[in-house]
Design a protein that fits this description.
Layout (H helix, E strand, L loop, with lengths): L15 H8 L1 H24 L6 H20 L2
Length: 76
Amino acid sequence: MVDFIKRDKDDIYSKPIIGFLFKNQKFLMTLKIVVSALFLYAIYFGYIHTGKDNLFTWAVFWVSFGLCLWLSLSLH
C-alpha cells in the first residue's frame, strides 16, 4: 500500500485545501449541481429577456467557452 505520493508543484492535489475539496465526493456533486443550475438559469434568462441589455447570459456563455478553451489548451 502506498503511504505517500510525491506530487509535482503544479498538481492540484498537492495543495492542501483544494486537494481535499476535489477528492471529496459531496463537494464535487454540489459543484456539479451549482454549475448546472447556473447554466440552466442562463438559458432560461436568455429566453425571457431577449433584449440587447441582457449581459448575464452573454457573460455566462462566453466565460464558460473561455474556460473550456483554456482547459483544453492547458492539458496539451
